[in-house]
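Researcher: Please translate sequence to structure tokens.
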Amino acid sequence: MTVWLQRQEAFALRESYLDWLNKALSSQPSENDDSDDEEAPPSTRHETEITFKLPALKLPATSYSVAKTVSFPDVTVSHLETIYGASNFISAFTLFIKKCFPCCTITPNRHDRFALYKQLSLRMPRNRYIADRLRTCCIRTTPATLAKGRAPGAPAHFDTALIVEDPSQYSPSSGGAGLRVVQIRAIFTLPPQYGTYPHPLAYVEWFTPFNRPEKPSGMSVVEVPIGTLVAHAQ
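Model: Translation complete:
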């Protein structure tokens, strides 16, 4: 019990120090706004990837990278629904087309084919509480593969992520405000018959919003209600 109390006291002291340090740093004027860019290490991305800058909004990522060519260029809707688990793909994609391309006269259907990426890498800004360097977060959307010959099979990887649902509420130090959990099922390009879009699209399953912590664990419970489709900036 004594050791536990000592640890709790240490945690409280550390939190008090960090609060004081944040206030002290925020009150000091910045000497050079471009210091992070100047000190950034040289890019280490693979030559087969291309990097895009994200809009200058209050977002947790600064840029992203995808492969120069898609990994699966001709995926059917049935394959997306069964293998990738994108059960509401056509309805979600139709809503996206109506919202972002209102002049498009083509209606999405089950005969469409889609070009998919295996993964997308996000460039995260420095965080002195984690590491004093640029970080990369990889989001994978790969279905399971069966063993073939001597090559072993591999399980499916459909990563989850915290995305900014409401930029007006989001702040790097606001906890879960403005954030929501999603599971990414597919990352793909817009088929050319519907128009042009400068960034990849993603079909995701939205978890329910964070609610009050559950007793006695103190953790929020979230569930997956339905899938939808989002653009890169959400």
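Researcher: Any highlights?
Model: Residues 1-30 form one domain.
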